[in-house]
From TrEMBL:
Positions of the Glycoside hydrolase family domain: 139-458
Protein name (Swiss-Prot/TrEMBL): cellulase
Domain of life of the source: Eukaryota
GO biological process: cellulose catabolic process
Length: 464
């Protein structure tokens, strides 16, 4: 459109100028001839010029500005890439990356770390769902029944721990200690466990039972959890330790109540009459006698072992665990500085029950458990220094036998494992190695008689 208007306007302007020139000038014939030729020549040139311009103008309908912009854009495309380079981060070892890539990597790493940390915290503190056995095996049933025996043997107010699963048992001996003997004042000695079918409470074998029950929970805690018996076992241990804490003064032990009830003589008493504990008041004064002793390394050593082992069981209750450790330390000090069997302080009529052969094995046993509970090397030193003066070398109990009277085999087993797993070294190594050898001999004394063994699903083996 633009080129056509420009061509028409240009031709008209040239014609007007030509007419004006002819009107204002006079020419002769020769001039006209020359003028005609000149005009034809000029017109021809003009027409060729117009044709050339029109042709060139018809090649595009876009204005010159647009064409210049296209050329500018093309110049940009053809221009070398001189973009500003991004800064890079030196990672060391000849490696580097862009700052943006580095920041993204840090963000991803922190996100993963937070996810892992949250997962660990959730796993640690979330309530654990323990698998329950729909059809318990014989060993699970046996464990439950063994613990039920302790429930049956409870003395005192059975509802004080919140439940009583033995429906045919009730409260009994709620005045124990009110008629203390040997010049002792009345004291509250309710609780604890009756010994057997009779109704006497013996401190020496009772403490041994609590030590072994605690040891079982320490060694096989996961099994107690899997069978649903952990809380049951812990409640029984606490029933026993609560009673033991009543039998002495932890701030300064000068005596220990070792027995409640009488068993000697021909008159009806707590051993003579086989009866329900709830019926004790039918035959005699319900304020039963309590016997205290002012020395007894065997009794105090065993009680120290029981409280120390229980303190490990109750690590999840720091206040109670510390209370047990304090009691164990006080009892061990009493045992160590008043070396004598507790039976020496019993009335002659009561010495027929649970006399200890010697007290050195209880001192080793008690110091071993105190070391395990506290980590105090003083107790480990006591456990090893008495090796040359234990009950076996004094003609006491048979070698390798572990029972309520001889604790040496149990202490040697604990210390052998300590040597194998931790290796305390000098000055304990020589005696610990001796304990290790004696433990091996004790095991070999049992095993060579049998060529094959039956195994439990545990797997534990038994030679019968």
């Amino acid at each position: 459109m633009y080129n056509k208007k420009w061509s028409r306007g240009n031709s008209m302007e040239m014609s007007r100028q030509l007419g004006y020139s002819m009107r204002s000038t006079e020419y002769d014939d020769d001039d006209f001839s020359d003028l005609g030729r000149s005009m034809r020549t000029d017109v021809g040139r003009s027409m060729r010029t117009e044709h050339h311009i029109g042709r060139s103008m018809r090649l595009t309908d876009e204005p010159p500005l647009s064409r210049e912009l296209d050329e500018t854009q093309q110049s940009w495309l053809l221009e070398p890439n001189n973009k500003k380079k991004q800064p890079r981060v030196n990672l060391g070892f000849g490696a580097s990356c862009t700052r943006r890539c580095f920041l993204w990597s840090i963000c991803i790493f922190l996100t993963c770390a937070i996810i892992v940390a949250l997962s660990l915290v959730t796993w640690k503190f979330a309530p654990k769902k323990h698998r329950t056995l729909s059809a318990p095996d014989n060993y699970t049933i046996a464990l439950g029944k063994a613990l039920t025996f302790f429930d049956i043997q409870k003395s005192g107010n059975l509802a004080s721990d919140g439940k009583n699963d033995i429906l045919w048992r009730g409260a009994s001996a709620r005045s124990d200690g009110q008629a203390a003997q040997n010049g002792s004042a009345a004291v509250n000695l309710t609780g604890g466990f009756y010994d057997a079918g009779d109704n006497i409470k013996f401190g020496f074998p009772g403490a041994y039972a609590i030590t072994l029950l605690s040891w079982s929970v320490i060694e096989y805690r996961a099994k107690f959890v899997a069978t649903g018996e952990l809380d049951h076992a812990k409640s029984l241990i606490k029933w026993g330790t609560d009673y033991m804490l009543k039998t002495f003064n932890a701030s300064g032990v000068d005596k220990i109540y070792c027995q409640v009830g009488l068993g000697g003589g021909a008159k009806p008493n707590d051993h003579y009459c086989w009866e329900r504990p709830e019926d004790l008041d039918h035959f005699h004064d319900t304020r039963r006698s309590a016997i205290a002793v002012t020395s007894g390394s065997d009794l105090a050593g065993e009680m120290a072992a029981a409280l120390s082992a229980a303190s490990i069981v109750f690590k999840d209750q720091p206040g109670y665990s510390l209370k047990l450790v304090r009691g164990a330390k006080a009892l061990y000090a009493f045992a160590k500085f008043r070396p004598a069997p507790f039976a020496d302080g019993l009335p002659s009529s009561e010495r027929a029950f649970y006399n200890s052969s010697h007290f050195n094995d209880e001192l080793i046993w008690g110091s071993t458990w105190l070391y395990l509970a506290t980590g105090n090397l003083t107790y480990l030193g006591d456990a090893t220094i008495r090796a040359t003066d234990n009950s076996n070398r004094r003609g006491g109990n048979p070698f390798g036998v572990f029972d309520w009277d001889n604790k040496l085999a149990g202490a040697q087993l604990l210390l052998t494992r300590l040597r194998m797993l931790q290796g305390p070294g000098y000055p304990y190594e020589q005696v610990l190695k001796q304990y290790n050898n004696e433990t091996n001999l004790a095991m070999c004394a049992y095993l060579p008689q049998f060529k094959t063994f039956n195994r439990t699903a545990g797997p534990e083996f038994f030679p019968f």
